Structures are given as C-alpha cells and as structure tokens.
Here is the input.
Amino acid sequence: MKAALCTTLDGYESLTLCDVATPTPSDTQVLIRVKASALNFADSLIVKGKYQVKPPLPFSPGLECAGIVEAVGKNVTTCQAGDRVMAILNYGGFAQYALADAHDVFPIPDNLDFNTAASLPVAYGTSHHGLTAKAQLKAGETLVVHGAAGGVGLTAVEVGKRLGATVIATAGGPEKLAICKEHGADHLIDYRDGNVRDKIKALTDGLGSHVAYDPVGGDLFTETLRSTRQDGRILVVGFASGDIPQIPANIMMVKNITCIGYHWGAYRTLDPDSLRASFAELMSWIEDGSLQPHVSLTFGLDDVKQGFEALLARKSTGKIVIEIP
Ligand SMILES: NC(=O)c1ccc[n+]([C@@H]2O[C@H](COP(=O)([O-])OP(=O)(O)OC[C@H]3O[C@@H](n4cnc5c(N)ncnc54)[C@H](OP(=O)(O)O)[C@@H]3O)[C@@H](O)[C@H]2O)c1
Here is the structure.
C-alpha cells in the first residue's frame, strides 16, 4: 500500500510517499481501507517526536480517518467487512490502509461523505466531551472560544451553541470571524486588535465569561484569566501559539477560578464509556442537522506536506482533509 512515511523525527518536511506492506489486524483490531484522513495540529508534533504518542519509526501520521472495513480481528463483533466507518487512530491515517482498535471505530451516518466523516472524531470529540464532562457547560452560561475558526475551535462554537450557551468567538481576522458567525457564534472578537479582556468584559456586563475554551495559550491565556468571572472555569485544550502559559495561582485563588487540564485522547483508556456516550450524542446532533462540520481544504496523499504547510501557516478554517486514492 502507499503511505506517507515518517522515517526521521525531522518534521513534516521529511515525510515521503512509500510502498509498504499492508498491516494485518490483531484479534481486537479493524483494518480500514482509508478514503479520507483529517490533519490535526498534533500531527505536526508527532512527526517531530514532540507529541504524547511516540510511535516507533518508520510510521505514518494521521490520527483519524474514514473508509471501508477491509477485515476484522477474530474477536471483533461491532463491525464487519464492507461497513462504512470512521475511526480514531493511534497514528497511521495517511496511508491506504490503517489499523484501529475496534472500540475506536464508529459507523458513518448515511448523510455523511468520507471527507466530512474523517474530520469529525478528534475535533468534535474534544469539544463535546471537554465542554460537557469536564467544563460542565450549562445552558444560559457564556462560553469564550479562542482560536474559534480552527479545527477544535469551530466545533467548540457549535457544541457550545447546541448546549445553550452564549458563545463569544475570538480569532485572527475578519474572514475567520465570519466563519465563526456562520457556525453560530453570538459575538466576535478579533484578537489581532488587542484588548481581548476588555472586550469580553464589555460583552458580559463587566463580569467575564463562565467558561473559556483555550486551544491557543500564550499571551491570550493571561487575557482569559482576567476575563473569566468569579467561580468560572477555563478548559486548557492546547497551545497552537507554541507558547505554554504559566498559571498564576494567586489569580486562580482570588477569583475562585478552576483551570481544567484536558487531553481528550487519554479518555480512550481512562473512561472509554464516557467517550462513547459523548460520541453517540454527537452523532445524533449530526443526524438531526444541529452541527455543520466544516472542511476548508483538501489535499491528495502525495500533497500531504502542502496540507501541513497550510495548517501551520493558519490558512485553514475548520479542518483539512487528506483524500486517499
Ligand atoms: N486537549 C486535547 O485533547 C486536544 C485535542 C485536539 C487538539 N488539541 C490542541 O488544540 C490546538 C489546536 O488544534 P487544531 O487542530 O484545532 O489546530 P488548528 O486547526 O491549526 O487551529 C488552531 C488555531 O489557533 C490559532 N492560532 C493562534 N496562534 C497560532 C499560531 N501561532 N500558530 C497556529 N495557529 C495559531 C489559529 O487561528 P487564528 O489564525 O485565527 O489565530 C488556528 O485557527 C493544538 O495545540 C492541538 O494540539 C488538543
């Protein structure tokens, strides 16, 4: 099979398209003929050895995919050859075939194509489980979403609206904010103009938000801490800015703020039942049309590097998908 292979931990620039052996599923695994795989920020880290998961070399990146079941291990009863599925992967999505653990494989609703299905699991999973199980967002609360036009950010806008929150979206520039508005954001803040804290306070009667969802980090985190209300919650999702903030405990104490560290992937083993429940609710929202998954760019398997370039140059909104021939 063809695979975009990482042979050294030198970053996405070193990925090469190679012919490799098609893998064989273990007793509990599913072999998927991949039709589409979505790109995640984490893929840019895994190919530099800077992600939590460090696969043995050589490997293909790619943390989620959609396709058709080719074969299943002998203990797998939840799907069978020929099923249309999407899957969460440890790695290996940028290849013609990928292995997934059976509990990470989900049927694709009839109204979804492969590209859209591939773009769902990580971003919507992170936002739904993070905002419900971890941040406990309630209807009527105000949610600030940073990096709101990005992969996880845009899904947090939609999930926040579906949960009944008022959503304040922050992003870099009017085009990105327009996408946030299309996906339901109530208020828009261009963080390139500065004064994020004052703008959030002005939109919340001077009180600040109940919940903040932060996949960006850096200086924006200081603004977040200052613009979260007494007894509010901050969901620490990621550091797309490249800058990991240090949290001043005194401000957390004085404002009774809870900073919640959140790594969605860890719940695949910590609490798989809660992830399945989260996924089930998400699928019902997809099927009833409450969510509008957004793929802004697609690339072929031989153009994977261009996909990475677009992601890291902040040229995408929502998700980038790699189509696999
Ligand atoms: N905790 C978890 O379980 C979990 C799950 C998924 C992802 N994440 C993390 O969440 C973060 C975002 O992931 P993603 O897949 O949504 O990425 P993405 O699609 O690239 O979105 C990131 C957004 O961050 C903003 N940004 C601000 N400063 C940036 C910078 N210096 N470089 C790049 N983007 C910058 C960009 O929006 P503007 O151009 O509008 O500023 C961009 O839309 C990553 O750190 C990722 O590892 C965490």
